Each structure stands twice: as C-alpha cells, then as structure tokens.
Amino acid sequence: MLRVRDHPAVATLREFLLESGYVATRLKNELGLTRALNAILTNLPALLARTNEESTLAILARLFFVGWPISTEICARHIPEAILQLCVEAGVLEIQEGTYWPSVILVPFEETLLLACDAPRLRHHNLDVVIGGSASTNLLATAMLLNSVESVLDIGTGTGVLAIRAATYSRHVIGTDINERAISFARFNAALNSATNVEFLTGDRFEPVKGSRFSRIIANPPFLVGASKPFTHSDSPI
To answer: Is the pTM of this model over 0.70?
Structure first.
C-alpha cells in the first residue's frame, strides 16, 4: 500500500511533475493520445515507443504514466534524488537490481490534480485493484455543484478524486470505501494534492459515518451487477 509520512513532502512530488510538464494536455500530445488519457495494456507498445528517449518528460511519462521500469542510473540524471527517495519511501517506486519499478501510476485529472492508481501491469489478478478516473468520474466532476458547503460525504471514494475535488469548496469532506487499499491510495492522493480538509474511512457505504449528517452526498458507485463479483471497485456486493 501507499504510505504517507509527511504531507508537505508528498506535495513536492506533484510540484516537480507539474513543473516538468507532466500535465494532461502535454502528455496527450507527447504520447499521441486523442481520446482518454489512459495507459492500458492494449496501447502499451505505442506508449513505450513514444517514451523511448532520454528526456525528463519522457522518463517521467514512462515511469509514472505507462508504469514501466527504468534503470536507476537514467532516473538519477533526470529526477532529483530527494524526489526518488520520497517515491521509494511512499511505495510509489521499488528498487530491484538497479532498476526503479513503479508500483502505481500518477494520472492527471482536470488542470492540476494528480491521482495515484495501480499500474496496468499489476491489475490483472488484483481483486482490490484501484483504478483511475473513468468517463463517469469526469461526468460527475463536471456535474457537481460547486457552491460552498459545510460538509460532504463521498461514498465509494476509490482514489479519492471526487472527495479531493469537493475539498476545494467544502469546509470538511469524508470519503468512505470498503476497499482498504483504495483508502490508502485516497489518503496518499490527498497529501499529493495538498488537500488537508478531507479524511478517508474504511467501511461499507454509510457504516463508517453512522449517525453523522452532511450538507451533500456524492458517489460514483460500483456499476456492474452480476452473478460473479471479482473486482471490488466495479462489482456491486448486492
């Protein structure tokens, strides 16, 4: 799981990425993506080809967007040591035989948010996989009322994206999720984006906040209902 030991330190990772051009519009142009900003196994060969150069943005895109390993020597030439050390301590990167292996990818959302989710190569057999934003996430983020409110509850928070966005106009936000791994990602993402007025609790739906009242409740719930329920993030337990 991702680890947060120092919120301001984690936020420096986002600052470095944004300063290096790691934003949605530029990544789309650099990677030749015309629709959604997604790294998936089916477009892996093309993404690897487009990040096969030794420039700072290409290195960052291969590590943190494609989720592909790069030698520690190459990374050291383009990424500050403090940033690399932070990523190792937080569980974003692992070192194996002189190579940095990404445990997660960092996906841009809207203008300046960055969200950690599981790297594509690690998703196949992980029942508690944490995925990034989808078309429904974008739709909900667009449709959310942005007037100032006292408190917001985000049910099935996942990466925490809607809760973190709600934190920009709310005094206090709570996100809940039955997936403990998702909660660790959401807490990391809150620190990454300097959202200090949001907290995340593990539990099913309203259970972690039983007895509490909120000004607004938002949710992007599991949406596939069937006899088989293999993935926590998409399959309804009902």
So the answer is: yes
